């Protein structure tokens, strides 16, 4: 008599879970792709542009400027929804950047300064040259305050475009562009903190420093409870917001004090896990021999063992790793698209486009991102190699450095963020800047794709020619 299929012995709920899992797996796979954040950012941008160029614009303006907040007796914190997105929601983005930076410094690609020195130099060039180009066109105009707009790189968009070109580039360019974008973001945070803050209140900064010292002390003492860091993180955000420094700095500062040490070592973890697995196997064998093979819910001893196993797994990981894993997709598919939805709207009428293209702010941003970025990155990499300062990631060619520079010209999210700080929510300068950012990002993405495709074909032909010569 043939054995019944295993699934026939499963309860209805388990069969339903299997079916639902099969439906969700493709969705989870889509969410986990590098291109997803870029696609959702593009969709959010298109929706914002459609809304801004239709009668819905008035309703959208009303919603984005609607005041919301908290009132506790005589204390209140209220601001427009648009400001909540820029100063509140974007904190998670900067917090994630801080976590990525800390991980890379402690155990990743930034651990050895010699391996990253050339990329730091490239990032510096990619910030300085665009800013200089912008200032040449705007130094004596009303738009001079926007000099930092073309300095930024949108990590999600840039990596999304690169992911589409994965078969035509080396793995080294991915390492280069990721590190470059991280340093760009750090530069943007420093610039925002020092140059785009006003009415600084020193007393709130002192209170913020005390909170940071307290969190650092909790870290040193081995306190790893997430709710404690979240609670003090909220306090830190409120203090920095009232200090006059842009509140997103709280995300980076909080990331710096998140515990990055495991409670137990790998050997201890392996020994403990083996022991727990042996206990599970022993309990299972005893139940099978007695004819009582219970589900885990009915077997309390088995459940206790699996709980201890889960605690052991958490002990060998770090809060930094867990939080980064938890945040990376919500930020990519939630925070950034929402920010784009609130900030990317600009008029696309021919008259408005013509007026924007003739504006020095638009010209400065387009030239800074499309031309300044690749020139700055390429030039400083060349100088770094000439002076023997570090080296490029293995397998990466100089042609790919130019490709990475073109991808760095996709400023989008960070450039929009700096625009709101430079010119406010609604002004002719803001519209000119947004038009420049969108056009520059599209041009940079197109030119990067074209450049990497052409250089890939050229390298392929050279390789084939060498093979033919080797045969003869």
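Q: What amino acid sequence fits the structure above?
A:
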């Amino acid at each position: 008599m043939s054995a019944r299929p295993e699934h026939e012995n499963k309860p209805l709920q388990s069969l339903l879970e299997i079916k639902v899992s099969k439906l969700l797996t493709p969705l989870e796979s889509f969410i986990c792709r590098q291109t997803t954040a870029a696609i959702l950012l593009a969709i959010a941008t298109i929706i914002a542009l459609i809304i801004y160029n239709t009668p819905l614009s008035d309703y959208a303006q009303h919603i984005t400027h609607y005041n919301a907040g908290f009132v506790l007796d005589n204390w209140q914190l209220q601001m427009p929804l648009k400001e909540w997105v820029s100063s509140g929601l974007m904190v998670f983005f900067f917090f994630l950047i801080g976590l990525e930076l800390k991980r890379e410094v402690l155990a990743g690609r930034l651990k050895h300064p010699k391996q990253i020195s050339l990329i730091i130099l490239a990032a510096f060039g990619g910030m300085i040259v665009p800013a200089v180009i912008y200032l040449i066109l705007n130094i004596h105009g009303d738009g001079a305050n926007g000099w930092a707009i073309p300095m930024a790189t949108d990590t999600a968009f840039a990596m999304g475009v690169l992911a589409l070109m994965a078969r035509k580039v080396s793995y080294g360019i991915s390492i280069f562009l990721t590190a470059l974008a991280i340093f760009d973001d750090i530069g943007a945070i420093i610039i925002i903190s020092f140059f785009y803050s006003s009415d600084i209140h020193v007393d709130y900064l002192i209170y913020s420093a005390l909170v940071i010292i307290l969190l650092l002390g909790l870290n040193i003492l081995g306190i790893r409870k997430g709710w404690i860091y979240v609670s003090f993180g909220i306090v830190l955000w409120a203090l920095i917001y009232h200090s006059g420094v842009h509140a997103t700095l709280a995300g980076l500062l909080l990331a710096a004090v998140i515990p990055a040490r495991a409670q137990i070592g790998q050997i201890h973890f392996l020994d403990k896990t083996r022991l727990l697995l042996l206990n599970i196997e022993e309990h299972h064998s005893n139940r099978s021999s007695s004819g009582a093979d219970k589900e885990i819910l009915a077997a309390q001893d088995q459940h206790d063992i699996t709980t201890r196993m889960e605690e052991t797994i958490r002990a060998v990981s770090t809060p930094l790793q867990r939080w980064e894993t938890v945040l990376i997709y919500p930020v990519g598919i939630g925070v950034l698209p929402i920010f784009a939805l609130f900030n990317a709207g600009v008029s696309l009428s021919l008259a408005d486009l013509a007026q924007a293209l003739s504006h020095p702010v638009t010209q400065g941003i387009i030239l800074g991102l499309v031309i300044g970025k690749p020139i700055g990155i390429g030039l400083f990499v060349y100088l770094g190699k000439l002076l023997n300062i570090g080296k490029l990631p293995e397998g990466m060619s100089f042609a790919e450095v130019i490709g990475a520079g073109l991808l760095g010209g996709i400023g989008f999210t960070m450039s929009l963020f700096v625009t709101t700080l430079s010119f406010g929510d609604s002004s002719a300068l803001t519209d000119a800047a947004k038009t420049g950012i969108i056009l520059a990002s599209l041009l940079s993405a197109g030119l990067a794709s074209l450049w990497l495709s052409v250089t890939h074909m050229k390298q392929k032909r050279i390789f084939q020619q060498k093979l033919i010569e080797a045969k003869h």
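Q: And what stands out in the fold?
A: The chain is about 75% helix and 5% strand.
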